[in-house]
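Changelog note: in this version the structure field was regenerated for every chain. One regenerated record is shown below for reference.
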Amino acid sequence: MLVVFGGLPGTGKTTIAGELARQLGAVHLRIDTIEQALRDHGMPSHAMDDMGYRIAYAVAMDNLRIGRTVIADSVNPLPVTRDGWLEVAKRSGVKVVEIEVMCSDANEHRKRAETRKSDIPGLRLPAWQEIVSREYHAWNRERVVVDTARKSVEESVKFVREAIAAQKE
């Protein structure tokens, strides 16, 4: 199965995706990690375009084809990136569950965004103004929505696991 996360920075998606991957023994593919590795090896950010996503799509397909569950973790801001993940699932012959993580409390979201620390060496986290002004298109299809404003990580992961289990039925 492919579980695709999306949502603005600072909503909690990486924390939830990582814990879900740990609990399921799944592969965790994080676009931030891939893109930072590319930058660390000399690729300028302005030249990266969708390269991180394309690498993640290929690695996801390899893992899905050998029977691994893959958790894709990225902002996933555009229909084209979301459609890319659906194509990966289709070509791999697996089910896909799309998860949008949001924080409906703007004050809480801002607090999280302004106080979090990067766990990827060299990665510069976006400032609050960059987050709220970022291009992020509304989803145009069914997905599981997790509002982390008043949910703990444990509650959010449990909610996602239940949604995944419902999709398997």
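Spot check on this record: Residues 2-168 form a domain with the Rossmann fold fold (CATH 3.40.50.300). The chain is about 50% helix and 15% strand.
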